[in-house]
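Exercise 7. Given the components listed, write out the predicted structure of the assembled complex. Treat all entries as one system.
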Amino acid sequence: MNLWQTVRAALRAILRNKLRSFLTTLGIVIGVGAVIAMMAIGAGARADIQANFAAMGTNLLIVLPGSTSAGGLRGGFGSMPTMTNDDMAAIGNDLASVKRVAPVLRSNQALISEESNWTTSVTGTTPEYFAIRSWPMDLGAAFTMQDVEAGTKVVVLGRTVADKLFGVNTNPVGQAIRIGPMPFDVIGVAAAKGQSSMGQDFDDVAFIPASTFAHKIQGRFNNFLQGTIYVEALTDDVVERAQKDITALLRDRHHLAATEDDDFSIRNMGEMAAMREESTRTMTTLLASVAAVSLLVGGIGIMNIMLVSVTERTREIGLRMALGAKPHNILSQFLIEAVVLSVSGGGLGIVLGLGAARWLGQLFHSRPQIQPEVIVASVVFSASVGIIFGLYPARKASQLDPIDALRYE
Amino acid sequence: MAAKLISLTDISRVYVTGDVEVRALDGVSLDIDEGEFIAIMGSSGSGKSTLMNILGCLDRPTGGRYVLDGREVSGLSRGQLAEVRNHVLGFVFQSFNLLTRTSALENVELPLLYQGLRTRERHARARAALERVGLADRAHHTPNQLSGGQQQRVAIARALVGRPRVILADEPTGNLDSRTSLEVMALFQELGTQGITIALVTHEPDVASFASRVVVMKDGKLLSDARQQPKRAALAVGAGAAGDAASP
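Answer.
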């Protein structure tokens, strides 16, 4: 009896009890479906995070000034300006591991055009900022170092802000707006970056030169930098070294003794990306293992029904033996029946999993990623479940005594 | 005289249950020639079923020699015995033992599955076997669509399809009425004339009268062994088979 004939006989035996066979495979269907859906959603979430942090720049370090402590009440990071423009210049010029630096001064301001107004986050910075964020201009141009040195009143709008102030997809370059009471010229619109996974709109921003921001909005004229410093490390590989170098440089410049704490802090975006990714991976693995338990339960279901089937068909087994079936013929017949059951369950599970992944993706606005290797693994796994849990009943059948089996009522 | 096909020499079969030893067969010696139609009779417990199981290579004797078709089979493994059953023997059972919800054709093909034949040849041989028992037009009926006599004829076709040397029948008419019994016996007689050896277990003297040799067993031993002029079942059958074919 060759393999194909055995598979056909197995299919016929399975189809003889359609409902029972379906219920038997349900555990495998749900298990495989859940594993595939979970893995696809997890991979999608990881890809989202990677894309978000890639948009931020993975070799980005953010240096925040220290905190104030007034009467035991400690302000958050940045509540005390401990860094100066000279600190920033030193980081940019003195360290080999650093490629670029840019100040980031932020405040929410009302922007007013002739026809509309919109309150958004205004960032005071230098042209380097756009290089660090690898953020090209869509229309017009970014401001230059000359603008920063002269403190000119020019503004670069994010796409969302341009849309809100001037209408969707218009070109506002050359128009005038006011930020608070001060007139600014729109000189550029930054390319659209889209949303972060948390729903934050990267394009709901406006940029003006750092000096203009400090003088006109913050109203400060001293050398302290009331904001953060964005630092781009030379490459992805030296991000940690850059972090150490900056720490050493700032401690030295701030004359901190070895026992004193840093009066600044450095956030590593690459590290944050890795942490977020790690936590998503852990979550995915957890969910997938729960789903895998269902596969185990499904396997036990198959073993149970195969044992019932062997008992029910004892006479058939005896007859087949009398007609010339060898023990291994009977073994492979029942083993293949178990494998066909579990693999068809796996097939249904794949369909279910793909459907569930799509549906969940729509529900959570994420893009699930179907991984072919997960599908292959599911098929292999469900086949192994069939073999493992089918082996015992099949062996039991093959070792029946033909005389007893024939007499079995 | 035809060649010896089956040769049992001093065969014994002892069952041990706890301390009790049961001698189901006690030194049975029996030779069966090719083409013989032998009936094995005896009351229940006489050992005739055990003898049948040993003849059918379903069971192994605890002592003695069994030579089937020139081959010593008493020491073979389970797998080797299966092969002997597949190629040399055909079985007919009292309760037909057809697979339910499976067509007559597929039931007849069953022994050929284990010979590894191609589908086309299996179909052809199964059809030919069904034709031989007069059921070519019922090939696609399932057992529950067939009468008892027809079911037993399907079972005989199944026993024939592997081209066996010997057909072993265990009370083949036990579940049939007297008219269909006659049909079945006629079929056996016809196969006998075609050179197939038939060994049949029965407790009905009527049935045994169609055989050319009758062996009677008692307490695990042969009580008598006589050749006889078989009663012809053919005449009765001609009408029976014709009537059968006409019935829906």
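Discussion: The interface with chain B takes residues 1-2, 5, 9, 16, 315-316, 319-329, 402-403, 406 of chain A (CB under 8 Å). The two ends of chain A are 27 Å apart (CA to CA).
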